[in-house]
Write a structure and sequence with these properties.
heterodimer; A: about 425 residues; alpha/beta; 3-stranded antiparallel β-sheet; B: about 475 residues; mainly alpha; 4 strands; about 55% helix; DUF1501 (chain A)
């Protein structure tokens, strides 16, 4: 018996006053809303160099603009992996290259949020809050989308943050779970009851504890039901009981995939990956950036494997706050820029394409003479997924999820029908 | 959730009434105790048994005294090597091409960081000047460097000792200069390798500008993101700072600051509308002085301090008062901190800030007389000792290893970033672990009295008293809102 308390922790409501009351609301529209579609958002924090991840190798200005950071073309040793005769994947993403041919990988290039300055922190805030103003609202677009999915979910938390906290994109009114590996011994029900009672007048701590306990029971269940042993290296006892608080990217991807694969698990997850702020010595097919891309590739492969049959109903979006300068800077890296690439992957994605209204890399074509120019709004891509994959209606998308001036129409045909 | 006094903010009591009316005297005693609990827990790093009593006669004076006198490097940090030594060792490890020979060098560097980080945590637990130590943590987070860049990972604590500690009650301009010319910052934000495109090296070796430090200096260190600078200003500051570098292995004094004229971009620059005539390193010195005096910097610093000490969303009047104090004192941080301590809003009994993991671990250590749980057996090597250091291990578990912030913005300073669902459960699980290790040696009711004093509400006192074991009583105390907040 692994442990312990899935049920106990899940049903620990007694002392959590206001928080508990919320989930006792009448259950409405539950059946309509909780489908089998999975959506995973991977946020690459630091600004991924889109021209290095997906190189427009056939652009006539590419080699000149990129200089020492230009990737060899597909026929050369260590060259990019061709996608469509114009764009090629960085070889560090080799493991997902076959997905493109299978129609399960789509690249959107020259995309950007509405943000046009170059602060990581404002850019990430805007990427996550879904408006046109950094720090404009304290909730995230994916949480608002979950709220649109419909009323009460019977206490079930459809959104999952992978990590100890909840990133802005998932913050808001809809209840969110979070999961991260913890080797600490778990407190038992009696103790938790006593703590919950102490939080009766502290809604912040009470709600967080309740959400955490829900998450824990969910994780216990999901991570216990799959017997393929993929997590054994990190997950002792077969449960959410790792030896260490640190998992490598593949292990995190596996855990996330398992949680989402579970029949009663979450349907939407957000993961962060770090290491994209490559100001110096970013390298080409090896080095700092290739290492980060390799981690991304490992996560994606682990997700696909661990989701199993649910991969067919899965869309993964990989986004970053901005791109980087088109030209290398003086130190073998790139500085903060504007447009970049985004990936969509998964069995539900209508892939095998690069979506781009390519702006070109000639001097006059670069944004402010330095960055890849934005020609697609990332919000259009996200709206297309939310509409066609999660079933949100257009009105809700415009009003509640991505409010703000100039919000672009949802992109079409991103999802298989 | 906390007992509210009858009339809002706790102003310093008027002592003259004390003798006149014993009833008022009693009331004043209660107020002083509350103030002492605030002084030790909100402005300090958590009360130790005895601290509230010691601060009670003059809580604000207890804090002021810490600002007035710099006790120097805490004893726990004696013996930490300097940054140049660590950087030189890092360079040597990088130069070693043989994998077998390189591995132990890298492990030694990692062990050095862990040992430093453990010492830094112990110093915070042990300090008699917790306000000062809190300011050290605050400012080194403001000027973050991070182990996420391996080149500086073994030198982060030395950086704090050298660039931050000496200046926390001095002038912001001095700290800004110490930080900006510190080799660890220059390496962390890539300025050490930035070359003017028209410098000697730029021309001969086709190297050029790196704008990382220029940008973060404006956005994070001085003006703030809305401080009114442009992309052009970022470039100009990067040009101004070319040449601010670090002595390499082949240079004398490896790992120390080195201005390299042959990296410096020649010619005039224009930053924030002001012209900087070609003056080598002098341009950067002048730019830093002006940035330190810029009104946007005053506002940025005031906002961050108020957010740290008072509330995630600080009262505008407090920010304005700190901003004014900064300007009036020409950026004297001791003065600005004293102004903070004179704000009524700083002394409201409601504890609005949720402790970060570091604050939680350190305050627990202080409450429990230094130990979080028994340390490893004697005879360990340094490295094992560092690994076994319970406080450090706790920080790793709770997600805040010293100097491991994921970005140059440093650790977040708002509850929303720390009180995630999983994080909250882990705090409670951690509290229970601590309780089980130490519960049989202490009386949690007594600890509640001594470290929370009047902050401990009836519900918490009862829960602690009625817990089935001392272990659970202690764990409840640590989990309680009164202890999780400050």
């Amino acid at each position: 018996m692994t442990a312990f308390l899935p049920l106990n922790r899940r049903h620990l409501l007694a002392g959590l006053g206001g928080a508990a009351a919320l989930s006792l609301l009448p259950q409405v529209s539950f059946a309509r809303t909780v489908g089998e579609q999975r959506f995973i958002l991977i946020v690459l924090r630091g600004g991924m160099d889109g021209l290095a991840a997906v190189a427009p190798y056939a652009d006539r200005d590419y080699a000149a603009v990129r200089g020492r950071l230009a990737l060899p073309d597909p026929n050369a040793q260590g060259g990019v992996l061709d996608l469509d005769g114009f764009f090629g994947l960085n070889p560090a993403l080799a493991d997902i290259h076959p997905w493109y041919k299978e129609g399960q990988l789509l690249v959107a290039h020259a995309v950007a949020t509405p943000y046009r300055d170059r602060s990581h922190f404002d850019a990430q805030d805007l990427l996550e809050n879904g408006t046109v103003t950094p720090h404009g609202v304290a909730s995230g677009w994916l949480n608002r989308a979950l709220a649109q999915l419909g009323g009460d979910t019977g206490g079930r938390r459809l959104g999952l943050a992978v990590g100890q906290g909840v990133p802005l994109v998932l913050r808001g009114a809809a209840p969110i779970a979070s999961w991260s590996p913890s080797p600490l011994k778990e407190a038992d029900e009696d103790f938790l009851d006593r703590v919950a009672a102490l939080y009766a007048n502290d809604p912040l701590l009470a709600n967080a504890l309740k959400a955490g306990l829900d998450s824990a029971s969910m994780a216990d269940h999901a991570l216990n039901t799959d017997a393929d042993g993929a997590m054994d290296g990190a997950m002792m006892d077969g449960a959410a009981k790792p030896k260490t608080a640190r998992l490598d990217p593949a292990q995190l991807g596996t855990a996330t995939g398992r949680l989402l694969a579970d029949a009663n698990g979450p349907r939407v997850a957000v993961m962060d990956l770090q290491g994209w702020d490559t100001h110096a010595q970013q390298g080409t097919t090896a080095g700092r950036l290739a290492g980060a891309l390799g981690n991304l590739s490992k996560v994606l492969v682990a997700l696909r494997t661990s989701l199993g049959p649910a991969w067919r109903q899965t869309a993964v979006a990989v986004v970053t706050e901005f791109g980087r300068t088109a030209r290398p800077n003086g130190t073998g890296g790139t500085d903060h820029g504007t447009a970049t690439a985004a990936f969509l992957a998964g069995g539900a994605v209508q892939g095998g394409r690069v979506l781009a209204n390519w702006p070109g890399l000639a001097d006059g074509r670069l944004y402010q003479g330095r960055d890849l120019a934005p020609t697609q709004d990332l919000r259009a891509v996200m709206k297309g997924i939310l509409r066609d994959h999660l079933g949100l209606d257009t009105g809700a998308l415009d009003k509640a999820v991505f409010p703000g001036g100039g919000t672009p129409a949802a992109a079409h045909d991103l999802i298989r029908t | 959730m906390f007992p509210l006094p009858p009339d809002g903010p706790l102003k310093p009591p008027a002592r003259k009434h004390r003798d006149a009316d014993p009833g008022i005297g009693l009331f004043e005693d209660i107020r002083m105790t509350l103030q002492a609990a605030i002084a030790t827990n909100r402005f300090g790093l958590g009360a130790r048994p005895g601290d509230i009593a010691a601060a009670q006669s003059d809580p604000r004076g207890w804090l002021d005294a810490q600002l007035a006198q710099d006790p120097g490097l805490p004893p726990d940090l004696h013996g930490v090597e300097d940054s140049a030594t660590r950087l030189a060792a890092t360079y040597a490890a990088r130069k070693e091409k043989d994998e077998e020979a390189r591995k132990p060098l890298r492990e030694a560097l990692r062990a050095a960081y862990r040992d430093d980080a453990a010492r830094r945590t112990r110093a915070a637990i042990a300090t008699d000047a917790p306000l000062r130590e809190r300011l050290v943590h605050f400012w080194s987070n403001h000027f973050t460097v991070s182990t996420s860049r391996p080149i500086v990972a073994a030198a982060v604590v030395p950086y704090e000792n050298e660039a931050i500690r000496p200046h926390v009650t001095g002038r912001f301009a001095d700290m800004l200069l110490a930080v900006t010319r510190h080799p660890v910052m220059l390496a962390y934000l890539d300025n050490a390798v930035s070359a003017g495109p028209d410098s000697m090296v730029g021309i001969r070796r086709q190297r050029g500008l790196n704008e990382n430090l220029g940008r973060e200096l404006l956005e994070l260190h001085t003006l703030g993101v809305d401080g009114g600078y442009s992309q052009a200003d970022v470039r100009e500051l990067a040009r101004i700072l070319t040449g601010w570098s670090v002595a390499a292995e082949r240079d004398r004094d490896t790992g120390t600051f080195l201005f390299r004229p042959n990296l410096h971009e020649p010619g005039d620059k224009i930053l924030l509308g002001q012209r900087y005539s070609e003056d080598g390193m002098g341009e950067g010195l002048l730019a830093l002085q002006r940035l330190a005096r810029h009104p946007a910097t005053a506002r940025h610093v005031a906002t961050k301090l108020a957010r740290h000490f008072i509330a995630d969303d600080p009262p505008p009047a407090v920010v304005a008062a700190l901003e004014k104090s900064y300007r009036d004192s020409d950026g004297h941080l001791g003065e600005v901190t004293r102004t903070l301590l004179r704000q009524d809003a700083a002394w409201v009994p409601e504890a609005r800030k949720v402790k970060t993991p570091t604050e939680l671990v350190v305050s627990t250590g202080r409450a429990l007389g230094g130990d979080i749980h028994p340390v490893a057996d004697d005879g360990d090597t340094d490295m094992k000792a560092a690994r076994a250091e319970p406080a450090l291990r706790s920080l790793a578990l709770l997600g805040q290893m010293p100097f491991a912030a994921p970005s140059p913005a440093g650790w977040p300073d708002q509850a929303a970033d720390w009180v995630g669902p999983e994080a909250m459960v882990q705090r409670v699980d951690w509290a229970l672990t601590v309780g089980e290790k130490l519960g049989d040696r202490i009386d949690p009711r007594q600890i509640a009295d001594q470290v929370l004093g009047p902050f401990a509400g009836d519900a918490t006192r009862q829960a602690v008293a009625r817990a089935p074991s001392a272990a659970e009583g202690l764990a409840l105390l640590i989990s309680a809102p009164e202890f999780q907040r400050r």
